[in-house]
Amino acid sequence: MDLKEIQALIKFVAKSGAQEVSLETEDFKINIKTGSDAEQPTIIQAMAPQAPVAMAAAPAPAAPAPAAAAPAAEAPADDNSNYITVKSPMIGTLYRSASPEADAFVKVGDQVKPGDVVCIIEAMKLFNEIESEVSGKIVKVLVDDQTPVEYDQPLFLVDPS
User: Fold this and answer.
1) Staple 145 to which of 29, 56, 96, 155, CB 3.0 to 4.6 Å?
2) What is the pLDDT of residue 18?
3) pLDDT(113) > 50
4) For the chain, what is the largest distance between any 2 Cα atoms, rounded to a whole number of angstroms?
5) In contact, 73 and 93? CB cutoff 8 Å
6) Residue ranges covered by each domain of the chain
7) CATH architecture designation of domain 57-159
8) Entry pTM
């Protein structure tokens, strides 16, 4: 729901004489309360998690592997500030190996370079290989095998030195 729709809803509620109106969807919740002594209605809006929106905006799973490479960004400024975070480029289920019997693509202490597969994310029954965009040593695995991941969720910490 955009700002113009919200403003139109407020005007409608004010003209209708209703004391309170609540509207809730998967993406948001709006409560509009009007008082007899107030000229303007009070609006309380709380946004729900953006997972449904991100799912619609996620890149097409059929994209070639280089387009599905995980973006890398600096980690938050704490004790991991000198590490680079490899993040999920899509929503799906993360697999650390090609099959349950196979070894993990990367483990703590492994060296990676750009183009190395670090994990697989299954999205809409398609398995997308996630490649490293940086070179360095894996210092921390942030997600367990076979767990759901969100768009832009940190997956690995890499020491670039």
Assistant:
1) 96
2) 74
3) yes
4) 69
5) no
6) 3-48, 57-159
7) Beta Barrel (2.40)
8) 0.51
